[in-house]
Amino acid sequence: MKITDIKPYPVWIGHRNQTIVKVETDEEIYGLGEPGFSSRELAVAGVIKHFREFLIGCDPRNPAALWQEMYRSHYFEGGRVLTAAMSAIDIALYDIMAKSLGVPVYQLLGGKQRDFIPCFATCEMPSTEALIANARLLLDSGWNVIRSNWAHTHEGDVYEPRESLALSAERLVALREAIGSGPVLGIDFHHRLSVAEAASFCQRIPSGTLDFLEEPIRDETPEAYESLRTMTDVPFAIGEEFASKWQFAPYIERGITNFARLDLCNVGGFTEAMKVAGMAETHYIDLMPHNPLGPICTAATVHLAAAVPNFAWLEHRVSPTETLEPNFDLYPQQLQAEGSRIYVPDTPGLGVDFNEELAKEKPFEFWEAPHPRRLDGSRTNW
Length: 382
Description:
Blueprint: E1 3-13, E2 16-25, E3 30-33, H1 41-55, H2 63-72, H3 80-101, E4 116-123, H4 128-140, E5 145-149, H5 161-179, E6 184-188, H6 195-203, E7 212-214, H7 222-229, E8 236-238, H8 245-253, E9 259-260, H9 264-267, H10 269-281, E10 286-287, H11 295-307, E11 314-315, E12 318-319, E13 322-323, E14 341-343, H12 356-361
Parallel strand pairs: 4-5, 4-11, 5-6, 6-7, 7-8, 8-9, 9-10
Antiparallel strand pairs: 1-2, 2-3, 4-14, 12-13
C-alpha cells in the first residue's frame, strides 16, 4: 500500500474554520485527520503540502517511522505549526491502517480498556444566578463534571484580570454551596493570569471548592508554574498548548500538573500521544484531553481515551449549556454522545467520514481570535 495524495481542506464551519486532512492510497482506502492549531489554518495547510512532497509513495502503515521523518526532515524541528500538521497526518495514517485491517483504531493502540468515555461540559458565568442555573441544568441532565469559564467584567475585548478573578472566585464559591460537594467542579482561565493573580484567585476560595484549575498562566516557563504550585492546593490541569512529549516532560516529571490536558491534534497525533500517556501513567497523572475542534478530533480522542488506563474526562462541547454545530451535511458519519458519555465505537478506523465535494465548495474565511486589552490600553492574553 502506498500514499498517493494528501489533501488539506481548511473550511469555514459555524463560527471559525476547521481543517480536514485526507490521506489517499493506491488501494482506495483513505484516512482522515485534523490539526488543532486554530486561526492559523493556512500555515498548517502549507506545512502539510510540504510534507506531501516526500510522503507520496510511502507505506501509510508505518506511522511511527513517518512521524520521525516528518519531525526530523528540517533543521528547525518542532513547534506548534509543524506538529499540528504532523498530528493530522498521523491520525489519518492510523485511520488507514485500522480500515485496512477491519478494526477500530483503538485496537492498534493496545485494545479497549473502557466501554464509554466520560465527558465534562462547560458553562459560562454571566452572573451568579445564571452560573448556578446552568450547573443545575447539567446536573439534571446527568453531567457531574462541570467546567466554568472566567467572569467577564467589561464588554468587548477589554479584560482586567484582577476584576475577573475576584468576581470568578465569588461566583464559584456560591456555586459550590448551591450544588454541594459531590459534582466535580473546575474553571478554565485560558492562561489569562500572572502567577500573583492566579495565587490571589486560589486564596480567595475555600479549600475543596475546586477540583481543578485549568491553564491559569502561560506555559512557556515551567518554573513559574512550580512557584504557583507552592501557593495553592488546587489541582492543575495543564497541557492543551503542548506540541510534544518534551514540552510535557517537566510538567509530568516535576509534579507540576495533576491532569494532562493533551490535545491529540497538536501534540503529534496518536504516535506522540501514547508516549505522553505512558509518561503520565508512571506519575499517576490522568489524561483530560482538550477537544474544541470537530468530529474528527472527537473521534480520534475517543479512541485514545479507550486505549489508555489513565484517563479522567474528555472535553465535549455539545451539552445542554453549549452546542457546537455537528454539521451532518459535512460529516454524515460521526460519533455522538449519549448524555455525558460517548460510547466507544466498533466500526473500522475512526468511525468518521466527510463529504469531500461539499468541503471543496466551502470557503475558507480569515478569522482572528480576540485580541484582549486592559483598560490602560495594553495587550493581554486571550
